């Protein structure tokens, strides 16, 4: 090779080498850049996911779930809460996960939650099970302090707890729920589906009950129970024009927050489940029926001089007048003899028909499942007709009495009782006409006369124009009527010149006391309850006491011979 | 020139990338704030329900009754508290010892057919500014007036109000069943431990065998006025050892079983869909509707 050729070859080779080096360097850079790019892309994507597109799907942000309680609330007609569900923390323990000294832990738990039983907590901590409840219903402060113990074996379970803030008030109406949140009695049971309905969870169920009226009724009945040593009491306050039940009391009552702590006898709703022979209060219905049928007029007289024989019995009066009595007199003096004759003249079929129309032969139609079938005579012969006329031989609930009374005084239209609120302005349910307006008017006067001048004098609250009928019945027992066990009732309505509300008060086995001169009849114990209740409840319900207003009784004075007052 | 063009393009790209990134960061930040707000709202709504329950417990009628019996001794207004005329009221207010008004014994007035008389009761502004001008119909709502409670009517008051430490409400959230204010005797009615509780002979309820719980509570008090008896106040009974019926043990078992299942098996079922919400205490339907819209907008596109 010549040197020129060699040089050029070397230069060529060097150029190739440089090119090759260059190329490899370029390729290396490209490769590094590619890796760097991948890294950058990954980094950017990470940032993108973590920071920009982060969506918190934790349950804490689900507002609608927080708005929607697991079970709908129940409120009264004015919006006061009767039943609500809140989330409470319950303390539970996993015994196998507990570190540290169990005795010390027990001591610390009981120090924070003082109501707990030391032995019980100890037992739960030492049990062999995997999971045990220690207590329920912790306050938030207690939760914080228990958490601060720092024990990994303790756990908090958030549970939905059904709370009845008013305690024992309206317990039988509301009922209660069991541990799984299922309604077991009362409104909770009969409206269970509606209370769990997804669409209506945030809309509270509104009842016709008024807490203030309910409290007044329960309080006065409790006082009367204590005063007369009664074993039970029941009361109903109802709107005559709509059938809404403003108050329904059954005593002794229970606390729906802690049902198992009350004896099971208190769960019995005396107002809807207890059937009683209500005694003379039925005379109101018999008189109304007879007037309606035209069988009697005010001036008609019946022989009440001697007891009325029927079969092997004789119907007597408690306070015999031993003379002929007019219809108002029969009503005021509560004459069984006169009333029985009235019913006989009316006839068995007519009486049965009215009883059916008044709803006394079937369970009350109300939004509670705890209703009872009334008892009536079968066969319903002449004797039965006579005894039913003054309220013996037929047993109905206080709620039946309330709806019947409402039909008598409101102008003659019978409406079923209801616990669902009927908002003011909405038309009342149509109902069924049983009596004419004229009959209703006459009955109002007669009922007012009983309170002004008859057995119901102790129910006369000045200005409220209460009218009603007393009823004292002996409770049937083994081997005949027990003379000492009474059911006393006062069925009333006010204000009698334009009745708005029916008030029924029943006492179970009241006793005579010194104040009542040993008498235990309805005029002495049930009637004063109604007076106190109406005085408390009248202003709330918009009835102003006015002593210058009253039912016009002048047309009836001619039918009543004596003006003596019978406080029986 | 070409270099400039390329550099400008490069710069523009970089700047727009930076700006877009900044906007994305901002959006993420706002979204985070919204999440925090939503969490706060959910917490507040829960707290509102809890507070409403607590409020209703504290103002439940039995508690108010107890406070009234301990501190005020107020009773319902009777007919003599409703004044027939302004003059009658003024005369009464001026001389607190006077009887408010003579009950006017009139014959029973017009029959029910006649039209109702015009509003009768009328109050005017009294000198001490206590009364208000109210025109009432005979059956209208109760007078909403402030009458100075006369000191000369001791019989209206149940007891001298005294500040009873025990009367202060001691409601804990953890327990709200308490003894009623009536005195409860622990002893069974004397003489007949086997007293027959018979509610009614045909009632469906079987005769209970334990008599103590039912009969022990009610002792006839010899107080001259029932309301005086009520002013004895009992402590709120707090929740003692929690009742542990069979159902609770069953529940515990169920929880353990469920956890085992969850650990080994399928994921949890999805939550039910959010329904239309009505009014809940404090939040009206328009607020709820806007929250729903927000939730729906978020859940829609994703």
Q: Describe it for me?
A:
The complex is a heterodimer of chains A (568) and B (302). Chain A has 568 residues and is an alpha+beta fold. Chain A is 38% helix and 17% strand. In chain A, a hairpin with a 5-residue loop joins strand 1 and strand 2. In chain A, helix 3 packs across helix 4 and helix 10 crosses helix 12. Chain A is elongated, with a radius of gyration of 39 Å. The model of chain A has no long low-confidence stretch (mean pLDDT 90). By secondary structure, chain B is mostly helical. The longest helix of chain B has 57 residues. Chain B starts with a helix and ends with a helix. At the A-B interface, helix 1, helix 2, strand 2, strand 3 and helix 9 of A face helix 1, helix 2, helix 4, helix 5 and helix 6 of B.
Quick description:
Chain A is α+β, with helices and mostly antiparallel strands and 568 residues long.
Strand order of the largest sheet of chain B: 1-2
Per the principal axes of the C-alpha atoms, what is the gross shape of chain B?
A: elongated
- Gross morphology of chain A is elongated
Number of helices of chain A: 18
Strand content of chain B: under 5%
First and last CA, distance of chain B: 47 Å
Give the number of DSSP strands of chain B: 2
Strand content of chain A: 15-25%
Question: What is the alpha-carbon Rg of chain A in Å?
Answer: 39 Å
Largest sheet of chain B: 2 strands, antiparallel
Q: Helical content of chain A, roughly?
A: 25-40%
Give a topology summary:
The complex is a heterodimer of chains A (568) and B (302).
Chain A: H1 3-52, H2 63-67, E1 74-75, E2 81-93, H3 102-112, H4 118-126, E3 132-138, H5 140-149, E4 154-163, H6 171-174, H7 186-190, H8 192-196, E5 205-206, H9 211-228, E6 232-239, E7 245-251, H10 282-293, E8 301-303, E9 308-310, E10 313-315, E11 324-326, H11 327-332, H12 336-346, H13 348-357, H14 382-389, H15 398-409, E12 413-414, E13 432-433, H16 437-453, E14 467-477, E15 480-494, E16 501-508, H17 522-537, H18 554-557
Parallel strand pairs in A: 1-5
Antiparallel strand pairs in A: 1-2, 2-3, 2-4, 6-7, 6-16, 8-11, 9-10, 12-13, 14-15, 15-16
Helix pairs in contact in A: 3-4, 3-5, 9-17, 10-12, 10-15, 10-16, 12-14
Chain B: H1 2-58, H2 61-72, H3 86-94, E1 121-123, E2 134-136, H4 212-215, H5 226-229, H6 246-264, H7 285-299
């Amino acid at each position: 090779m010549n040197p020129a050729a060699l040089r050029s070859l070397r230069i060529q080779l060097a150029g190739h080498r440089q090119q090759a080096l260059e190329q490899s360097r370029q390729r290396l850079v490209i490769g590094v850049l590619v890796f760097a790019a991948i890294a950058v892309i990954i980094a950017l994507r990470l940032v993108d996911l973590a920071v920009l597109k982060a969506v918190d799907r934790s349950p804490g942000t689900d507002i609608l779930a927080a708005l929607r309680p697991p079970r709908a609330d129940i409120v009264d007609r004015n919006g006061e809460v009767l039943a609500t569900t809140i989330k409470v923390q319950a303390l539970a323990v996993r015994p196998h996960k507990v570190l540290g000294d169990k005795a010390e832990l027990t001591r610390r738990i009981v120090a924070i939650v003082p109501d707990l039983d030391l032995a019980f907590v100890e037992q739960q901590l030492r049990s062999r099970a995997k999971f045990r409840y220690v207590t329920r219903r912790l306050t938030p402060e207690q939760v914080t302090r228990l958490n601060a113990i720092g024990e990994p074996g303790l756990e908090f379970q958030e549970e939905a707890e059904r709370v009845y803030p008013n305690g024992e008030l309206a317990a039988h109406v509301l009922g209660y729920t069991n541990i799984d949140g299922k309604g077991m009695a009362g409104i909770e049971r009969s409206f269970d589906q509606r209370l769990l309905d997804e669409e209506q969870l945030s809309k509270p169920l509104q009842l016709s009950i008024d807490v203030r009226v309910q409290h007044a009724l329960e309080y006065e009945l409790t006082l009367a129970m204590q005063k007369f040593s009664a074993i039970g009491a029941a009361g109903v306050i109802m709107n005559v024009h709509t059938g809404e039940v403003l108050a329904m009391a059954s005593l002794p009552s229970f606390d729906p927050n802690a049902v198992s702590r009350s004896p099971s006898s208190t769960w019995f709703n005396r107002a809807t489940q207890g059937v009683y022979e209500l005694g003379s209060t039925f005379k109101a219905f018999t008189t109304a029926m007879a007037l309606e049928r035209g069988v009697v007029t005010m001036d008609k007289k019946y022989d009440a001089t001697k007891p009325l024989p029927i079969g092997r019995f004789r119907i007597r009066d408690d306070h015999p007048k031993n003379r002929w009595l007019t219809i108002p007199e029969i009503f005021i003096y509560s004459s069984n003899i006169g009333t029985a004759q009235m019913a006989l003249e009316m006839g068995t079929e007519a009486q049965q028909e009215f009883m059916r129309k008044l709803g006394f032969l079937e369970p009350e139609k109300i939004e509670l499942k705890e209703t009872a079938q009334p008892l009536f005579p079968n066969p319903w012969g002449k004797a039965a007709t006579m005894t039913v006329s003054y309220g013996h031989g037929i047993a109905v609930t206080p709620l039946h009495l309330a709806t019947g009374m409402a039909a008598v005084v409101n102008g003659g239209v019978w409406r079923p009782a209801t616990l669902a609120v009927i908002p003011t302005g909405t038309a009342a349910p149509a109902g069924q006409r049983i009596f004419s307006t004229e009959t209703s008017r006459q009955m109002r006067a007669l009922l007012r006369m009983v309170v002004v001048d008859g057995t119901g004098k102790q129910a006369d609250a000045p200005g409220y124009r209460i009218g009603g009928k007393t009823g004292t019945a002996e409770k049937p027992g083994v081997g005949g009527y027990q003379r000492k066990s009474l059911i006393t009732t006062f069925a009333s309505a006010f204000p009698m010149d334009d009745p708005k509300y029916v008030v029924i008060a029943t006492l179970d086995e009241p006793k005579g006391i010194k104040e009542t001169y040993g008498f235990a009849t309805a005029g002495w114990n049930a009637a004063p309850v109604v007076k106190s209740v109406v005085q408390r409840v009248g202003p709330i319900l918009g009835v102003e006491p006015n002593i210058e207003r009253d039912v016009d009784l002048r047309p009836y004075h001619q039918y009543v011979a004596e003006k003596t007052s019978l406080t029986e | 020139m070409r270099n400039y063009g390329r550099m400008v393009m490069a710069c523009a790209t970089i700047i727009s990338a930076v700006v877009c990134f900044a906007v994305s960061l901002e959006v993420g930040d706002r979204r985070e704030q919204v999440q925090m707000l939503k969490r706060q709202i959910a917490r507040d709504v829960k707290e509102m329900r809890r507070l409403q329950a607590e409020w209703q417990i504290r103002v439940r009628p039995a508690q108010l009754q107890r406070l009234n019996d301990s501190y005020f001794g107020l009773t319902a207004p009777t007919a003599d508290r409703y004044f027939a005329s302004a003059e009658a009221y003024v005369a009464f207010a001026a001389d607190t010892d006077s009887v408010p008004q003579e009950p006017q014994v009139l014959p029973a007035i017009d029959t029910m057919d006649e039209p109702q008389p015009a509003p009768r009761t009328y109050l005017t502004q009294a000198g001490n500014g206590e009364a208000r001008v109210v025109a009432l119909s005979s059956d209208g709502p109760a007078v909403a007036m402030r009458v100075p409670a006369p000191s000369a009517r001791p019989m209206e008051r149940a007891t001298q109000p005294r500040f009873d430490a025990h009367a202060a409400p001691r409601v804990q959230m953890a327990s709200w069943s308490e003894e009623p204010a009536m005195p409860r005797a622990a002893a069974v009615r004397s003489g007949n431990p086997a007293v027959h509780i018979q509610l009614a002979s045909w009632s469906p309820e079987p005769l209970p065998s334990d008599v103590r719980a039912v009969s022990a509570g009610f002792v006839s008090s010899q107080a001259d006025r029932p309301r005086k008896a009520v002013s004895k106040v009992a402590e709120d009974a707090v929740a003692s050892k929690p009742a542990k019926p069979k159902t609770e043990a069953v529940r515990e078992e169920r929880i353990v079983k469920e956890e085992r299942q969850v650990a080994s098996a399928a994921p949890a079922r999805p939550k039910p869909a959010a329904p239309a919400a009505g009014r809940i205490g404090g939040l009206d339907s328009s607020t709820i509707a806007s929250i729903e819209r927000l939730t729906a907008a978020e859940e829609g596109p994703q």
